Amino acid sequence: MPLGTLDRSPPPFFRQGQSAFSKLILFSALALFLMVTDARFKLTNPIRVAVATALYPFQWMIMRPLEMARGGGEHFMSLSDAQNGQKAAERRLAQQAQRAAQVEQLTLENDRLRKLLLLRERTATSGQAAEVVYEAADAFTRRVVVDKGSAHGVRPGSPVMDEAGILGQVTRVYPLSSEVTLIIDRDHTIPVLNTRTGARSVVYGDPSNHGGTLELKFMAGNADVQAGDILSTSGVDGVYPPGIPVARVDKVERRADSAFAKILCQPVANALGARHVLILEPFSAQIPLNAGEPSVQNTPKKGVKK
């Protein structure tokens, strides 16, 4: 064979296959498809539940040293701090005792008035205690994980509070744990009632994601809102029981270039450091059907003689 007919080009060292750009397009399209289907149809929820259940023992083991260190720090707390806390607790106890005497009288009067006006009796709110395990690993949200899940009767949408007021709402439930979205999250809203004026409004989470405050939006510039006003749950959303403190008005800015005032509030709950919480049942699940209302079949139609 003549030497001129031989192929002198060296063979490729590695077989390339598809180009890197083709692989990028393919996997980008696949990732986009999975994100859209997960957002629309929640296809990966069973996978999340299975992974969370499998990883829970490892999370529990990893958190033990931190819990031991935290418990040791609390055990060796200085005597002066303990005495100051005791004095503050005694002052609060005296104030609560005075308020409790007034609340008992007001509750009795309220019950009598409701019976007189034939109004529905208020339902008692039941709940269960839980402990915050860790914060969710997402820098763009304000969420925590508690150690109670669907195995303990927790349902999505359940309100969560601490000893001071509303802390957030359960947004995702696993068998042994639950994810709670705090009220300072930018996507969280809650209907509130100004306890001084009785005006209803909606308070929104902090849009800056780092301040830990709340904002009372869409309030007119001449609205009767003052610094120091207490905002409590109104109960009109069917989620939060009425009358639970939510926030305290901190700052009111009335601007001439806007028809609405900028109202900043501070949550009464310890949103950034809560450890022990109470998970309540959704308010709509506690409202019984009113047996006194006439049914559609038994209501006589107008213009028809019986």
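(the above was protein one; protein two follows)
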Amino acid sequence: MKPDYEESSGNVFADLGLRNSDQELLKAKLTLQIHKLLKEQGLTQEAAAKRLGTRQPHISALMNLKPVSVSVGRLMEFLTVLGQDVEVVVKPAKPRAKRRGHMSVVVRDAPYAA
């Protein structure tokens, strides 16, 4: 008997057949991290908007984990303003990738060790 479910690929955006699914997952993970940091820092939406150089409606959307029409680069900039180091690593794609590479985010919550 075939199961009543389909196993996820690990990317809900790809599972839904959305274009640019890697980028959408990347933005979702960055947004989640920004959300966590803003909650930890206890900033009001107005204070967060001022600190990040954006508008309060963008912060409201971020705090509700809703998609925001902000680039990946801008989300990374928000993270640096919130005291995070952001590192981008570019490396050759695995041979099975054929033409396209892959985007991902790794969040390290551990304190920096010198």
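Reviewer note on protein two: The chain has one domain: 13-97.
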